[in-house]
Structure formats: structure tokens, C-alpha cells
Amino acid sequence: MTAVVEPTLPELLERDEDGRRLGALLWRPGPGWRAVSSAVLGGGIGERHWVMNVQVAHGYARTDPGRHLAALAGRAGLRGPGVGLMTAAEVARHGTASDGGAVAVATAGIDVRGWAAAPGPAVPAPQPPGTINIVVTVPAPLTDAALVNAVATATEAKVQALLDAGHDCSGTPTDAVCVLARAPRPGGPAEPFAGPRSLWGARLARAVHAAVGAALPRVS
Predict the structure, then answer these.
(1) Maximum distance among all alpha carbons in the chain?
(2) Residues 115, 89, 217, 7: is their CA dihedral positive or negative?
(3) What local confidence, expressed as pLDDT, does residue 112 receive?
(4) pLDDT under 70 in the chain at which residues?
(5) Which of 36, 53, 120, 164 is 20 to 30 A away from residue 15, measured at CA?
(6) CB atoms closer than 10 angstroms to residue 112
(7) Model pLDDT, residue 120
(8) What is the share, in percent, of the chain residues with pLDDT greater than 70?
(9) Rg (the chain; Cα; Å)
């Protein structure tokens, strides 16, 4: 039987930048955790010791967001591999939900939104960070395939939350996700599935749906 370890919730950091007081959400799970992420810093699959969801000013124009995030992580005293996400949404107004040990935290800026399969040419990157950012912690080891599956499940739940809140879109062009899961022990078991009807996928989906719904503005 896999031991369930309670995942951590983020702390709120603040800094002065661009003439504004800006926040950041910081998770410090420490060693023994793996992540899958689409983040600009620390994206992909691998061991990660921290995750930071950083608020930037509207009209953010820097073309080196990875370097910017790495510098902010250094200022916060973070060491080892980590994940850095970015958003213009006010991170202090995040949504949080848990289900059976899976914990999701979402920040939601939806000024620039639309449908993923909309016709038209691609937009050159980088783009202004409006952004729905989702960070989920799962206190169980997942295989690489299950981690990828978890990203798909979280995205499905995000879209469901947008529609339930009355928003006619599937997200923004810069949405990002990070799923943290316990690293498997050498030779130990790992959950092979994280689809919406699997044990941890279902819990993740419900947590993400509730967290995104709590972070979104409602349509009257």
C-alpha cells in the first residue's frame, strides 16, 4: 500500500517591481517529488523541489521570462530544480480545493481568452501573460505516462469549470499547468493511470474543477 503524504499549500510572497506591489505563490515540497509542467521555467518531467507562480504587471514586456523567474527564485533563496510560472492575475485571489488528498490551486486571468481550435494564424511567442495557472499536488507516485495523463485531466477539468462559470472559451493562449506527485521509490509501485475515471485522476479533476471555479469571475 502506498503511504499518503499530505501535500503542501503555497505561501504568499510579495515584492516591489515595476512600481507595483506584486505577489507570488510558493510551494516548497522539498526532495522526493516529481513534476510535469508546461511552465517556462522547469517545464517537462523531472524531480522538482519547489514551484513558484509569479504575478507580473499588466503589459509585461520582457522577452526573457525564464531568466526573470530564475532571478526571482534566487532572491527567494530557492535551491535545486524548480518550476516557475507567470501570470498577470492577482495571485492572492487564488482558488483552492482538495479532494481525497489531491490539492489544486488556481489563479485566473481571462482578459485574453478564446477557443483552442479557433481558426487563424499562430501568434508569435511570447505573449502577454493573462493566464489560468493550475498547480496540483498528488500525494502518490505516478508513472511518466500517468503524469502526462494528469495534465490532460486537469485541462479537461479547467474547461469544464470555464463553461460552468458561463465563459464561452476553453482558456487563454498562455495557460499553464504543473502537477506535483511523489517520486516512486526505487523498485516501488507507481500509479499507471491519471485519467478522469482513475482513482487519483478523478480526485485531481474534482479538485481542479473546484479551484478554477473559485478563481474565475462569474458571468452574470
Answers:
(1) 53
(2) positive
(3) 81
(4) 1-7, 121-130, 218-220
(5) 36
(6) 16
(7) 72
(8) 91
(9) 17
What's the pLDDT tens digit per position in 128-153?
555 899 999 999 999 999 999 999 99
Instruction: Please give the Cα distance from 184 to 116 (Å, whole number).
Output: 34
Q: How far is CA 172 from CA 116, 128, 148, 151, 167, in A?
A: 8, 10, 20, 16, 11
Retrieve residue 85's grid coordinates.
510560472
What's the number of CA atoms in the CB half-sphere (13 Å) around residue 115?
Answer: 6
**Three-state DSSP class for 67?**
helix
d(CA 30, CA 48): 8
Pairing of strands 20-27, 11-17: antiparallel
Q: How far, in whole angstroms, is CA 87 from its chain's centroid?
A: 11
Three-state SS sequence of 19-37:
CEEEEEEEECCCCCEEEEE
Are the CB atoms for 77 and 120 separated by under 8 Å?
A: no
The amino acid sitting at 213 is G
First vs last C-alpha separation in the chain: 47
Task: Evaluate the CA torsion angle 68, 69, 70, 72 in order and state its sign.
Answer: positive
Closest CA to 158 of 93, 211, 87: 211
